[in-house]
Amino acid sequence: xxxxxxxxxxxxxxxxxxxxxxxxxxxxxxxxxxxxxxxxxxxxxxxxxxxxxxxxxxxxxxxxxxxxxxxxxxxxxxxxxxxxxxxxxxxxxxxxxxxxxxxxxxxxxxxxxxxxxxxxxxxxxxxxxxxxxxxxxxxxxxxxxxxxxxxxxxxxxxxxxxxxxxxxxxxxxxxxxxxxxxxxxxxxxxxxxxxxxxxxxxxxxxxxxxxxxxxxxxxxxxx
Length: 223
Prior knowledge:
Helix content: 40-55%
Number of helices: 8
Mean pLDDT: 93
Order of helices and strands: HEHEHEHHEHEHHE
Number of strands: 6
CATH superfamily of the domain at 76-217: Aldolase class I
CATH class of the domain at 76-217: Alpha Beta
Structural class: alpha/beta
Oligomer: single chain
Strand order of the largest sheet: 1-2-3-4-5-6
């Protein structure tokens, strides 16, 4: 709902345009390899969250990761995804993926559907992807789309606690949800939150080792 790069009208130019081609493995390597080989704390990511789902091109990603890791162990290879295909996530983890970030606005399937409007997958696949990645030793994070007054409702926090217990994620990325407030609340229903600070305090008490941030981390800074 309200996707930045897919607007129905011409009135609001997207901050980034969707590319109209699929790159080759060599084109991926041409961009990613020099960065991993030379940059301090280098990181490359597949997927951004509003430009298409990288798991739709999982075979390209698998081959690219394998080739990158054949040539260098330096740097971090990350996947930003909606977590829709756990079996594909497993293949990428086995290819050499270092970290994964799964985006969601809510730990509850109903609210997730209202915002993300998934096609061809359900909330269970998201959980399974996080658990597969964790099982494979990959650093896992949730890209939590934060909307004060919704994200910090007691039921949302309780659901998030339950999800973290099941998936054992390492990091919660607190991402500001850039959307018209009236549009969002019309879909989610109105309610009252406990406050974002109190929500974070609650999560920290429940999970002392859980990390919080805003960006993907490099493997030197995972723990």
